[in-house]
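Sequence design from tokenized structure. All designs in this work follow the same two-part layout: the structure record, then the generated sequence. An example of the structure record is given first.
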């Protein structure tokens, strides 16, 4: 009798409705796009039930990690160079690369009147920028300062973040009175910007085109990349201060 009951119980497990399991994708995202990609991932998860695991950091470091086999399914970079290199080296899937945003750099301060005039007056202790060797927004900041003739003048007042996320933290924490950050870091849809900023004229730096690539055949990652290219998502991206693509 006991054996019969156990058999019935096991049969009920096998013939019952199987549990529905959502898929999952692990995605590396440049830190300037933190808020925008979070919002997009939430919308995607609501619509599909699949899970997007986001890891935020610097473009240069992510590139090195991916080249060393880091287990990411996709990469949202802050530039075009690293995704192109990943594609050329056969690490990224062919024909998966596309531009998802074009960033803008701003001079931002929670307390000072952030203008080009204030920048030139040097009435502050520290100016934060991202490391130009690792971060595309840092390279853009360097281009701006060189065009303004201030790169050498301000070199002893600069504090350099490893990426644009750390650079923003330097400014928002007060460790630097002002800094060059991404507009997407201070602009949130429906919210007022806390502080002042100067949107740097586009002719002072090279366009910051940001590209994404697939790194695996994960179907959830592929679906997410297709979702990012939709008109619905383009509107979300623009809401965070990126230029229309």
């Amino acid at each position: 009798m006991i054996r019969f009951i156990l058999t019935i119980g096991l049969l009920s497990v096998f013939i019952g409705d199987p549990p529905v399991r959502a898929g999952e994708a692990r995605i590396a995202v440049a830190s300037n796009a933190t808020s925008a990609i979070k919002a997009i991932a939430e919308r995607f998860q609501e619509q599909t039930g699949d899970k997007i695991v986001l890891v935020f950091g610097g473009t240069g470091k992510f590139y090195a990690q991916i080249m060393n086999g880091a287990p990411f399914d996709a990469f949202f970079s802050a530039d075009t160079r690293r995704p192109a290199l990943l594609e050329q080296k056969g690490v990224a899937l062919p024909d998966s690369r596309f531009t998802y945003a074009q960033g803008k750099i701003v001079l931002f301060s929670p307390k000072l009147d952030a203008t080009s005039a204030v920048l030139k007056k040097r009435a502050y202790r520290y100016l934060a920028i991202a490391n130009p060797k690792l971060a595309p927004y840092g390279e853009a900041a360097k281009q701006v300062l060189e065009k303004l003739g201030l790169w050498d003048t301000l070199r002893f007042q600069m504090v350099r973040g490893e990426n644009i996320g750390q650079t923003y933290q330097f400014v928002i924490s007060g460790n630097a009175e002002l800094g060059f950050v991404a507009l997407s870091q201070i602009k949130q849809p429906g919210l007022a910007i806390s502080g002042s900023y100067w949107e740097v004229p586009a002719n002072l730096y090279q366009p910051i085109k940001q590209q994404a690539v697939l790194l695996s055949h994960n179907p959830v990652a592929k679906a997410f990349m297709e979702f990012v290219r939709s008109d619905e998502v383009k509107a979300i991206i623009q809401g965070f201060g990126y230029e229309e693509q």
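The chain has two domains: 24-102+208-239, 105-204. We note this feature because it recurs in several other targets discussed in the main text.
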